[in-house]
Description:
By secondary structure, the chain is α+β, with helices and mostly antiparallel strands. The protein has helices at about 5-10, 10-20, 25-65, 70-100, 140-145, 150-155, 165-185, 200-205, 230-235, 295-310, 360-365, 390-400, and strands spanning about 120-125, 150, 165, 190, 195-200, 220, 225, 245, 250-260, 280-290, 315-320, 330-340, 345-355, 365-370, 375, 380-385, 405, 420. The strands form 5 sheets. The chain has an 8-stranded mixed β-sheet with strand order 1-11-12-13-16-10-9-4. Strands 5-7-6 form a 3-stranded antiparallel β-sheet. A 3-stranded mixed β-sheet has the order 8-14-15, with no helix packed on it.
Amino acid sequence: MLDPKLLRSDLTGVATALERRGFVLDVAAFAAWEEQRKAVQIESDRLRAERNANAKAVGHSKAKGQDAGALLVVGESLAEQLQGVEKRLEAIQAEVSNLQLGLPNVLHSSVPEGRDEAANVEVRRCGVPRQFEFLPKDHVALGERLGMDFEAAGRISGARFAVLTGNMARLHRALAQFMLNLHVADHGYREAYVPYLVHGTALQGTGQLPKFESDLFAVRGDPGFYLIPTAEVPLTNLVRDQILAPEGLPLKFVAHSPCFRSEAGAAGKDTRGMIRQHQFDKVELVHIVRPEDSYLALEELTGHAEKVLRDLELPYRVLALCAGDTGFSAAKTYDLEVWLPSQQRYREISSCSNCESFQARRLQARWRNPATGKPELVHTLNGSGVAVGRALVAVLENYQQEDGSVAIPSVLSPYMGGLTRMAST
RNA sequence: GGAGAGGUGGCCGAGUGGUCGAAGGCGCUCGCCUGGAAAGUGAGUAACAUCCUAAAAGGUGUUCGUGGGUUCGAAUCCCACCCUCUCCGCCA
């Protein structure tokens, strides 16, 4: 959510800033609602103050044993007036809040201009794609003999699911373990185990609700839950409604979790293989930082995700997402893309964002700034460190041998009981 | 799932219809005392919204788990829900 004070004081400035994303803010409608809100709230505050004073007078009068009959009549009429005004105020505030929750974050000045992914800017490239002596297979073809089973998954759950067995399942687990250990041991993260079912409030805090409900799986029951689309949701919500001590910052959390996405808008996209699934695993990184540190933290966090790919010796590149391609809650985002030989191109494997105070405001996540002594909003960042399913795909494809076996990256070997090559399940 | 107890400020805890944003304590901040510290002692110490303002100051409102209700007036009475604890049942 954007700062409501900013929306009042510089609405056209905000509208101009959001235009960069291609987002159109209806300035006139917004201003009209705001004007109404102000008028009705002033009236409501006035009536309440009057009612409070009157009620107090009744108390004093009764204490002295005087007749308070006249005051009671006044009070009755005030209560009646208040009821109507409060109802109107409530309706207006709901409308204003709805409008506010629909506004995306304002972009950082360093975000490149552009409408869509074609305008994303490559920041750097690491590693050189391997030259194959043979025609490289894709992970589906490779996985067929090595324990990746889409047919079985289809029987159980339908499209966009995978079953892994044997060494393939183990390699998947090895990747997650390796990433967790790296971030905990070398990058100073605190490991967290978090709920995979969350309520709507948590999702509103991180920005998925109310606007993107169709991307989520809702679970029936009372109370209803949503399946998390990323561990960013529970991890960032760890600081909801908290006032953090300055010496406790930054907080750095890492969690391995499954992620669940309806992929409602992705019909026909990446239908083959494990690239786009309803359920996939991810190791997620979250930083809670002082506002002045957040852009340094974004570089740091992105570097931590990159280290995973470097240790796995996978070629990748880093993109600065352009204005039109940056997500709703983010002020700035770097995507990491890993090389996939079968597609002869780089594919997203991590997304690292600085949300500044956008999520913190929705979460009421604050810290006590020693400079002012006041609670102020923190900045939140999140990034994949990295997507496990896609990392598995990248390892299979980049480490494949001509005979259809797959070499195990040396950093994963210890997690595979010393195995260096996967030839069968 | 059944029975019971409870949810009050950064923390503990008093408060059963009016003068309660809330006693007392702890913690914290500033001062006094001290060579310095501890002890002692004095003062201060919630958040949010909104109005006015360049800002500060200030005004008003809201907040005692959450939402509704009763009342001129609710931390206090009524209803629903959520959460925590104890016991029982079931279970990994």
